[in-house]
């Protein structure tokens, strides 16, 4: 579990620049480049995760896929966003059994000098369901 948190913190701190699949824009269009993500894992650390996604405003910005089920994954992605209301979601796309209890922790959205830390959440999810957050930027 510590490795997931360490990886998430390093990637969130460094935050790379990439094409935004939310708007298809590489310049930002007056928005802010943000790095969003956190840790997504089975609440009892059981190896159930085969594929999970991180979505920002309904568009996948990160995916983790495993050949063998694992207990969880760090999910971190970048996107350009405008000021206003947004949704960040951790989705279980494929799991070894369903439903299972999952937790999203260490969740944050960072861009420029602004950072939004979101509370840990635990929820029972069937395949295709998500733990979702709504936040206002900035």
List the helices and strands and how they pair.
Elements: H1 2-14, E1 32-42, E2 49-56, E3 59-70, E4 72-81, E5 84-95, E6 100-111, E7 114-118, E8 121-125, E9 130-137
Antiparallel strand pairs: 1-4, 1-6, 2-3, 2-5, 5-9, 6-7, 6-8
Q: Into which percent range does the helicity of residues fall? A: under 10%
Low-confidence stretches: 5-21
Portion in beta strands: over 45%
How many strands, which pairing sense, and closed or not: the largest β-sheet?
Answer: 5 strands, antiparallel
Spatial separation of the terminal alpha carbons: 30 Å
Number of helices: 1
Write down the secondary-structure element order.
HEEEEEEEEE
Number of strands: 9
Annotation keywords:
1 helix, four-stranded antiparallel sheet, 138 residues, 9 strands, mainly beta
Would you kindly provide a written description of the structure presented here, covering whatever features stand out?
The structure is a single chain. By secondary structure, the chain is mostly beta strands. The chain is built from 1 helix and 9 strands. The longest helix has 13 residues.
Task: Please outline what is shown here.
Helix content is about 10%, strand content about 60%. The protein has about 140 residues and is mainly β.
């Amino acid at each position: 579990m510590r490795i997931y948190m360490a990886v998430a913190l390093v990637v969130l701190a460094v935050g790379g620049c990439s094409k935004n699949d939310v708007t298809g824009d590489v310049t930002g269009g007056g928005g802010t480049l943000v790095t969003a993500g956190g840790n997504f894992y089975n609440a009892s650390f059981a190896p159930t995760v085969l594929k999970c996604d991180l979505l920002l405003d309904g568009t996948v910005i990160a995916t983790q896929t495993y050949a063998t089920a694992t207990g969880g994954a760090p999910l971190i992605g970048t996107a350009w966003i405008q000021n206003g209301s947004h949704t960040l979601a951790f989705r279980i796309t494929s799991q070894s059994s369903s439903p299972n209890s999952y937790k999203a922790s260490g969740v944050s959205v960072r861009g420029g000098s602004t950072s939004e830390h979101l509370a840990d959440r635990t929820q029972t999810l069937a395949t295709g369901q998500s733990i979702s957050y709504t936040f206002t930027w900035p």
